[in-house]
Amino acid sequence: MTELTAKGLSFGYAKTPLFSDIDFQLHSGQIHCILGPNGVGKSTLLNCLAGVYRPTSGAVMLDDQPLAKVTPAARARKIAYVPQMSSERTPVSFSLRDYVLLGRAPYLGLLAAPSQRDIAQADKLLQRFGLAARAENSYSAVSGGQQQLASIVRALLQEPALIIFDEPTSALDVANQVRVLQLIRQLAHDGYGIVLTTHDPNQALLLNDQVSTLAQDGQWHSGAAANILTSENLSQVYQLPLQVIELPNNHQKTCIVDQAAFRSLQGD
Ligand SMILES: Nc1ncnc2c1ncn2[C@@H]1O[C@H](COP(=O)(O)OP(=O)(O)OP(=O)(O)O)[C@@H](O)[C@H]1O
Question: Which protein family is it in (predicted)?
Answer without folding.
Answer: Belongs to the ABC transporter superfamily.
